[in-house]
Amino acid sequence: MASKKFKALEVKEIEPGKFQSTIVAKNIDELPAGEVLIRVHYSSVNYKDALSANGNKAVTRGYPHIPGIDVSGVVEESSSAIWHRHDQVIVTGFDLGMNTSGGFAEYIRVPAAWVLKLPDGLTLREAMIYGTAGLTAGLSVSALIHENVFPEMGTVAVSGATGGVGSLSVALLARLGYRIAAISSKASSKNYLESIGASEVIARADMEDKTGKILLRPRFAAAIDTVGGNVLSTLINSLDYGGVVTACGMVNGGDLNTTVFPFILKGIKLIGIDSVELPLIERMPIWENLGSSWRPEKLNELAQEVALSDLPQVLDQISQGQMQGRAIVSLY
Ligand SMILES: NC(=O)c1ccc[n+]([C@@H]2O[C@H](COP(=O)([O-])OP(=O)(O)OC[C@H]3O[C@@H](n4cnc5c(N)ncnc54)[C@H](OP(=O)(O)O)[C@@H]3O)[C@@H](O)[C@H]2O)c1
């Protein structure tokens, strides 16, 4: 299949520090080496894709580049004994869309070790409504359950609640019967957050502590933080005794301003979440739950479907923190 052409969204550095995304025709033989060639059916849009499209060299070192950290699709060619033509598969994370040509394209070629069978209970489209955001939300929920956070223990806060990881965290927790306080900077999204399962919506500005006090009034049994910075430190300092908080993101900042006191006086636990390098064997039970007992009733309402040509606008929206829910990209 050396000469076949396919469509992709390519990011180029048009002048130093200035990046532009355009739809281009690529050749299959330009794809990197790898055992599995996949015809992409859907991709999805994540915060990291916006970083890659905007020239963030911590995510993508070299341009021109095709972003897209998530893919669902069908195996077209495989030199691996594990995967065969017509297998329905997903790929999320690892180096896909970072320094390996990504899913904003009709084809990807990747190592067999990055590929997972399409989880039972999900279509190729639904798998991308989840994508990396859903896996990350699932890992966060799983971490709370592992630490024995049960619904009767009190309210679970979710920050960045209208974002991809945030929305899916709210929807999964609601499906599992938790009471959720959605923390959001978007006053206009109150109805949306309630419709996906939030019991209460708190404005980020009202929730963030500005006093610098370390031991604040306890108000949450647990929290899923997707934004970092002062929101994460406020959450740590506002948990009930024995509270648990997961951290996966840093759109609000990478610094963590707290002390050991919440940890040593209240037994607070801070759990880091990584969905990128996590071994496939540890992803499988999460995907199994996402396709079955954790699946939100309104999963299909959590995403808007966009075309490759809409991506520059959607990536801008994510960069500006304006995303509500998920965007999936149809490529088939
Ligand atoms: N560790 C991992 O494996 C992993 C995996 C996936 C994502 N992440 C990280 O998780 C974060 C969220 O990713 P995503 O794909 O869900 O992004 P997203 O869809 O853009 O959502 C981010 C949300 O955070 C809030 N937000 C935006 N800018 C903010 C700011 N300056 N301060 C505070 N809140 C802000 C907004 O929600 P509101 O307006 O509702 O507040 C926004 O919708 C990113 O940092 C991403 O890199 C990590």
Compact description:
The protein is 26% helix and 28% strand. With 332 residues, the protein is α/β, with parallel strands linked by helices. Strands 3, 4, 5, 6, 7, 14 and 15 form a 7-stranded mixed beta sheet that branches.
Q: Please write the string of helix (H) and strand (E) elements.
A: EEEHEEEEHEHEHEHEHEHEHEHE
Main sheet?
A: 7 strands, mixed
Average pLDDT reading: 97
End-to-end separation: 18 Å
Global geometry:
globular
According to CATH, the fold-level topology of the largest domain is: Quinone Oxidoreductase, Chain A, domain 1
Counting helices, strands and paired strands, the structural category is alpha/beta
Helix content: 25-40%
How many individual β-strands? 15
Bound molecules: NADP nicotinamide-adenine-dinucleotide phosphate
- The CATH superfamily of the largest domain is Medium-chain alcohol dehydrogenases, catalytic domain
Task: Explain how this protein is built.
It contains nine helices and 15 strands. With 332 residues, the chain is an alpha/beta fold. The protein folds into two domains: 5-118 and 298-330, Medium-chain alcohol dehydrogenases, catalytic domain (Quinone Oxidoreductase, Chain A, domain 1, Alpha-Beta Complex), CATH 3.90.180; 133-272, 3-Layer(aba) Sandwich (Rossmann fold), CATH 3.40.50. Strands 3, 4, 5, 6, 7, 14 and 15 form a seven-stranded mixed β-sheet that branches. A hairpin with a 2-residue loop joins strand 1 and strand 2. Helix 2 (124-146) packs across helix 8 (280-290). The model has no long low-confidence stretch (mean pLDDT 97). The structure holds NADP nicotinamide-adenine-dinucleotide phosphate. NADP nicotinamide-adenine-dinucleotide phosphate is lined by residues 46-48, 132-133, 136, 160-166, 184-186, 204, 226-227, 231, 248-252, 273-276, 318, 321, 323.
